[in-house]
Amino acid sequence: MWGNWTIVSEFVLVSFSTLSSELQALLFLLFLAIYLITLMGNVLIILVTTADSALKSPMYFFLRNLSFLEIGFNLVIVPKMLGTLVMQDTTISFLGCATQMYFFFFFGAAECCLLATMAYDRYVAICDPLRYPLIMDHRACFQLAAASWFSGFPVATVQTTWIFSFPFCGPNRVNHFFCDSPPVIALVCADTSLFELEALTATVLFILFPFLLILGSYVRILSTIFRMPSAEGKRKAFSTCSSHLLVVSLFYSTAILTYFRPRSSASPESKKMLSLSYTVVTPMLNPIIYSLRNSEVKAALKRVIHRTLGFQKLRPT
């Protein structure tokens, strides 16, 4: 019945249209640079962790999955945002908006679960090192990664299907740079209280609950590290966790601020800035953090480059 009421055939993304054309051009160049760095950095992480035999531990298997997720997350959001800045192409079809929202939920929920899985991996490696090879064998790693990816399907399917079954009677201006749930649901001309309760439950399950699991894991990890007798052991343990902890802090701090604040406590512009942090900036920083702060990744990158250059030199001209 609601489908017959829906008269909106497309949406208009407000994006950054309130800014001057000169500032939008600067933002386009900035976001394009970030986008290219994100793609190249995450592809490089995937190639290095696949090609180098020294990076076959579970930590790098999960890191490779994280890079795939970050690439997908970026492809869902950034190209359309760049189009709104450079070509003023702010319209998005009803189906296009639903598709973008679906994959945003899918990659977002999967990343939350994968970050929790990576924290569990570090917990077992530091708190139970003798049993680590038995607990985190190939089968367990594959199952944990598959569960993280699969977790995105139910939340994306339920949320997106429910939202777009509501009637949209106009206006159709989405006050965001992509089709996120809160600005789209604000355009619905029906009672959305039950959906908002479900959305809050899903947010708790897929953002807050994994974050609490990560927090609990690191409490145990830090207590184990502080009990280590050798300074070298402490340094090595900290170095294997610091990159993941930094990535988690960047991702969850902005996501929690975005989805757990009351509607009236922040302006739409400040929400856009927070959304930029976890949709655009964090995916760029992840490969930088893991490569610059991880000596094994840096060493593997050098080996891959040397092998590639050596192969090129050996090829006949």
Describe this protein's structure.
With 317 residues, this protein is an all-alpha fold. 76% of the residues lie in helices and 3% in strands. It is built from twelve helices and three strands. The protein has helices at residues 2-5, 21-51, 58-86, 94-127, 132-135, 138-150, 152-163, 181-185, 193-226, 231-259, 268-292, 295-314; strands at 10-13, 91-93, 173-174. A three-stranded mixed β-sheet has the order 2-1-3. Helix 10 packs antiparallel against helix 11. The termini are far apart. The relative contact order is 0.14.
Task: Give the biggest beta sheet.
Answer: 3 strands, mixed
Secondary structural class: mainly alpha
Q: What is the arithmetic mean of pLDDT?
A: 86
The total count of strands amounts to 3
Write down the Rg.
22 Å
- What percent of the residues sit in helical stretches (DSSP H or I)? over 70%
Distance between the termini: 70 Å
SSE pattern: HEHHEHHHHEHHHHH
Q: What characteristic shape results from the CA principal axes? A: globular
Measured by DSSP, the beta-strand proportion falls in: under 5%
Q: Poorly predicted ranges (pLDDT <50, ≥5 residues)?
A: none
Number of helices: 12
Strand order of the largest sheet: 2-1-3
What's the quick description here?
This protein is mostly helical. It contains twelve helices and three strands, in the order H-E-H-H-E-H-H-H-H-E-H-H-H-H-H.
Provide keyphrases for this structure.
317 residues, mainly alpha, 3-stranded mixed beta sheet, 3 strands, 3% strand, G-protein coupled receptor, Olfact_rcpt, receptor, transducer
